[in-house]
């Protein structure tokens, strides 16, 4: 056999991307970037909320520490019926837990009764209520002389919205 010219058509291969492949790649990269931005935004918001909650819990603990060593009411008062500060009494002179009833501190205060102006967006609200001797969920009148127990509740608000609330029970002894 003689060498005959080949009838096979040789085509050159072009190495590269087609326009469709490039468009698909751009769309995929765009979707990835959009998802990363959305996730970053969600993480930032969650982190901010956690920081606000942590601050609010810190402010609750400041009131708890301030009232821990105070008696529940004036020890020399036999008929314990008055809640809230005595006439003319200010935070510096609060000498028992029942003086804190109805107190609202904005800016909030620390355990040493100093204003925490760095937390100006927060407010501490304190409520002190007598509770039943047999059921700590039942609030009784301030004039009820049968119970030695009070429930202290501290609500911490940020820009008017409650962020944290805590309660504890104290006994008059």
How would you describe the overall organization of this protein?
This protein is α+β, with helices and mostly antiparallel strands. It has one domain (31-171). It has one helix and four strands, in the order H-E-E-E-E. The protein has one helix at residues 19-68, and strands at 104-105, 122-130, 149-158, 161-171. A four-stranded antiparallel sheet has the order 1-2-3-4. Strand 3 and strand 4 form a beta hairpin. The N and C termini lie far apart (122 Å). The model has no long low-confidence stretch (mean pLDDT 90).
Write the layout of secondary structure elements.
Layout: H1 19-68, E1 104-105, E2 122-130, E3 149-158, E4 161-171
Antiparallel strand pairs: 1-2, 2-3, 3-4
Please bin the fraction of helical residues: 25-40%
Instruction: Tell me the number of structural domains.
Output: 1
The neighbouring-strand order within the major sheet is 1-2-3-4
What's the tally of helices? 1
The SSE string, one letter per element, is HEEEE
Distance between the termini: 122 Å
Q: Quaternary arrangement of the chains shown? A: single chain
| Anisotropy-based shape | rod-shaped
In brief:
The protein has 173 residues and is α+β, with helices and mostly antiparallel strands. Helix content is 29%, strand content 18%. A hairpin with a 2-residue loop joins strand 3 and strand 4.
